[in-house]
Specification:
heterodimer, A: about 525 residues, alpha+beta, 5-stranded antiparallel beta sheet, 16 helices, about 50% helix, B: about 375 residues, mainly alpha, two-stranded antiparallel sheet, two-stranded antiparallel ribbon, 4 strands
Chain lengths: ~525, ~375
């Protein structure tokens, strides 16, 4: 009820405002054509781009004809521009001439005969040319012709491909996505050579005009999902998209939930695997984090390595991760419930140990757990932000001061320290759920502080209803467990061997469900 | 959500959510389950150690009821009991039938809420007022059904296996304590003692009548009979298992237990390591309780909405929840009265639950031609 009200309120406050900005922009950006007069065109460019220091507008003489060259100094490939464009225009035209057959104008013949650049496009639309310049392309205008040439010669500094810090593997490819969208596209392209893979470009961000690429494999993906993703992305009206996190928040199914319903990865092999299962991948320019939808809860228990290593160990570690998921969300709450409400549930010996350790601690269990949890999160956050060498010092001080001194001073009990440490470490086992785990833990701890075991279990019931209600791009968040699809249980808590997983996940409702042919289980042939 | 149109031209937004046959079976089992956890003592009180025969008879009765519901559901595939009873016996009487269903379900939902609150206050937190537990558990149910039946069905798909595995864990762990002498001799007091407990036992099982309200939401036609068979076999089995294990462990003391399965769990001690598993029983109660109360709650508001021709049932969630909370607190003074009233009322309520679909089915035989024209 309140959600609906809040949504209505937002719409009331925000709607009108947004519309007016858009209409202003549309009015100013009317379809502007180039004229035949080079000087007039150049001055329009100068007006539009202003006198920014990196704007280069050059006049070249190509025989009798004047040619204008517009580019942004920092983001074009200067060598290529010099050798293949400027030299070609100034020198080569003397030998070959600029034969214009009269029909198609000088610009077209330049494109065909003179300019030796891989990708050249023609355009008469002024707005398109300006955006080309801003994207790191160079624009060539010829006097007496109302067609401009866009030369795709971007050249800017970008990071080399390195192993991603967030998803390190022992076995598996070590390359990671980088900030440049074209490199990222090439990384996926190198993994999947099917002609059916599609990279559809989209520009999002009214000011930043960020390139976004929707990737899917035609024939595997459910076309309705692709339409839905496009619809949601088209709906976005925002000034800037600086990281894929913006998009993630803007296309989520349930924007008020803290559970991630859009996945992200830095690894091309993982993105490729997502595509092969029939998911959709969204690459955003300027960030190595690539999004994938639909993203389901069960995926947070999986890593790419599960599929590369033996299925026994993969299944073992998945179950381990699930156990740690329960530990990290519930352990502090259980501790509070046991020590403050129902100590009798513990075996007597353990109970005595617990009582002894709590001797002389002035805080109640809930206070202890919250305090230590708070300190742990603060240390972790500081550890991430601080320079590396200082960070180590902080963690040593943290470990000593918090671990040893606090217990000796009687501020907290030793058991609490153990529980906080275990909880904290367990959270790193499911990195993609990190924030959801933290909030679940806080909620459960508070509830069990009020109502003991009942509070914790009530929290479970609420969280369960909440998560089964969640959807990612229309797919229920807890599929394939609830609703149960038997065939898809092969790749959940347990991974069955590859030769058993003949079908793609059914819950994604792909058009083509068959993943493998009828291959027998590996082994020597029977007649041998 | 797509819209469905009732025979009287009202569009029902909420009928569009579909659940699978398995989800339906699971939902019905869970609806009945909390009753099965505390009924063994009551059955023992009425039928003594021959109670397992009582359970079988009651299950047979409930199977007939269920098949009547299935038959009616197949006859009127897109209507609920409230709707087809209006088609069958006219608006006035049909509304009365709907009101009977609402009252019986409302009473049982309040009863389960109170039972759970009683369990929590007596066993875990004696100083907390029961209303806290009533409100909180109803909040979870309300949250689920506000988002639709399918949410409840999905949640239940996860919880029922957990709950049943706890139940069977308790029963296996307590198996060494069971003494089969407690169950013999069979039929020492004659057959009348067995019959004495049948209506009350049937009352606990007869809430599979909820199927008559859920039937239009099943995703495939023609699976109602299968759902009924599977559900009745499952609940009959569960009731037998709980009754037999409680009786075998406690013998003649069984009828004095207020929370038999809970006390059963208390006896567990495996190598001094696994003992005191009561919190798990509490978890079992909560996880099955909120779904069970949720289904009853859902049936009540769906029936209300259909009687008053409302397009959306969602706004009924809050007022009905408030009503249920206050009913669960004010209807009973304490455990003693609770049990007394249950034993006194349950035969009449069982007759209503079992009789209603049978009566409607009988009428539908006489009016079959007419019914079909009104149907679509």
């Amino acid at each position: 009820m309140s959600q609906v009200l809040i949504k209505k309120l937002f719409r009331l406050l925000g709607g009108g405002h947004q519309r007016s900005i858009l209409s202003n922009q549309q009015a100013s950006g009317e379809k502007l054509k180039l004229s035949k007069d080079l000087m007039a065109n150049l001055s329009t460019f100068r007006e539009t781009l202003g006198n920014s220091m990196d704007v280069e507008i050059r006049l070249l003489a190509m025989g009798q004809t004047q040619v204008g060259l517009i580019y942004l100094e920092g983001i074009v490939d200067r060598t290529a521009l010099r050798e293949n464009v400027i030299r070609a225009l100034m020198v080569d035209t003397h030998t070959t001439g600029t034969h214009s057959d009269g029909k198609s104008g000088i610009a077209h013949s330049l494109k065909e005969k003179i300019i030796s650049v891989c990708c050249v496009k023609e355009s008469k639309d002024f707005k398109k040319l300006v955006h080309a310049v801003l994207s790191g392309f160079s624009v060539v205008l010829v006097d007496g012709d109302d067609t401009g040439l866009i030369l795709k010669l971007p050249g800017y500094e970008s990071r080399t491909i390195t192993e991603p810090l967030t998803e390190q593997v022992v076995r598996g490819p070590r390359e990671g996505f980088v900030e440049s969208i074209s490199t990222n596209v090439s990384l996926i392209r190198r993994k999947i050579r099917s002609p059916d893979i599609r990279f559809e470009r989209m520009v999002i961000g009214r000011v930043t005009r960020t390139d976004v690429c929707i990737v899917f494999i035609k024939g595997i993906v459910n076309p309705d999902l692709v339409e839905e993703v496009k619809k949601r992305l088209r709906r976005i009206e925002i000034d800037g998209v600086l990281e894929s996190g913006y998009l993630e928040e803007l296309i989520k199914d349930s924007p008020y939930s803290f559970f991630p319903t859009v996945g992200n990865t830095e690894k091309p092999d993982k993105a490729a695997a997502q595509l092969l299962e029939g998911r959709i991948v969204i690459i955003t320019d300027g960030t190595p984090f690539v999004l994938s939808v639909p993203y389901l809860f069960i995926e947070s228990l999986h890593t790419s390595e599960d599929y590369y290593s033996s299925y026994y160990s993969a299944s073992f570690f998945r179950i381990l991760r699930f156990v740690f998921f329960i530990i990290t969300t519930s352990l502090p709450a259980l501790y509070v419930a046991i020590s403050s409400f129902n100590p009798e549930v513990l075996p007597v010996k353990l109970l005595l140990t617990l009582k002894e350790s709590r001797e002389g601690v002035f805080l109640p269990a809930i206070g202890e757990v919250l305090l230590m949890g708070f300190v742990f999160e603060a240390l972790r956050e500081a550890g991430v932000r601080l320079p590396r060498n200082v960070g180590q010092a902080v963690s040593i001080v943290g470990a000593l001061v918090i671990g040893q001194a606090a217990v000796t001073a009687g501020l907290v009990s030793a058991v609490t320290v153990i529980i906080t440490a275990l909880t904290g470490i367990a959270a790193f086992v499911l990195p993609s759920q990190a924030e959801a785990l933290l909030f679940q833990r806080i909620i459960y701890t508070l509830l069990s502080g009020f109502l003991g075991f009942y509070g914790l279990f009530l929290g479970y019931a609420f969280m369960l209803v909440h998560t089964v209600n969640l959807r990612s791009l229309g797919v229920p968040y807890l599929s394939p467990v609830a609703p149960l699809t038997k065939g898809d249980m092969k790749d959940t808590l347990v991974r069955t061997p590859w030769w058993k997983m003949r079908a793609r996940p059914e819950f994604l409702h792909g058009s083509n469900i068959q993943r493998q042919g009828k291959m027998p289980a590996p082994g020597p042939d029977e007649d041998n | 959500m797509t819209k469905l149109v009732s025979p009287r031209g009202v569009e029902y937004l909420y009928s569009a959510e579909k659940i699978s046959g398995r989800q339906g079976v699971y939902l019905l089992i869970t609806t009945v389950l909390p009753g099965l956890l505390f009924s063994p003592a009551i059955i023992y009180g009425l039928s003594d150690r021959s109670g397992w025969l009582t359970v079988l008879l009651a299950a047979a009765l409930v199977l007939i009821q269920g098949l009547a519901v299935a038959r009616l559901g197949e006859k009127y595939p897109r209507l609920t009991l409230v709707q087809y009873s209006q088609v069958l016996v006219g608006k006035m009487l049909g509304t009365a039938a709907g009101m009977v269903l609402i009252l019986v379900f409302l009473y049982y939902a309040a009863l389960l809420t109170r039972k759970q609150a009683n369990l929590l206050t007596t066993m875990f937190m004696p100083n907390t007022p029961p209303i806290i537990f009533s409100i909180s558990i109803l909040l979870v149910s309300a949250y689920a059904i506000r988002n639709g039946l399918e949410v409840l069905a999905r949640a239940n798909e996860l919880t029922l296996p957990i709950v049943l595995s706890f139940l069977f864990f308790v029963i296996f762990a307590i198996a060494p304590e069971m003494k089969w002498e407690h169950l013999t001799p069979v039929l020492e007091d004659g057959f009348m003692t067995v019959l004495k407990g049948v209506p009350t036992t049937a009352y606990f099982l007869a809430f599979i009548l909820a199927l008559s309200m859920l039937a239009p939401q099943l995703n495939k036609a023609g699976q109602l009979k299968g759902v009924v068979y599977r559900t009745v076999i499952a609940i009959c089995f569960l009731q037998l298992v709980t009754f037999l294990s409680v009786t075998a462990v406690f013998g003649p003391r069984s009828d004095r237990l207020v929370f038999p399965v809970f006390v059963l769990a208390r006896q567990i001690n495996i190598a001094d390591l696994i003992e005191r598993v009561e919190p798990f029983i509490m978890l079992m109660w909560i996880l099955s309780g909120f779904v069970s109360i949720g289904v009853l709650y859902y049936c009540v508001i769906l029936a209300l909405a259909q009687i008053f021709n409302l397009v959306d049932y969602r706004f009924l969630v809050l007022p009905t929840g408030v009503l249920l909370t206050s009913l669960s607190i004010t209807m009973w003074e304490g455990s003693g009265q609770f049990l007394e009233q249950l034993i006194l009322w349950s035969p009449y309520l069982a007759v209503m639950l079992v009789g209603l679909p049978l009566l409607l089915l009988a009428i539908s035989f006489f009016r079959s031609g007419e019914g079909k024209t009104l149907e679509d």
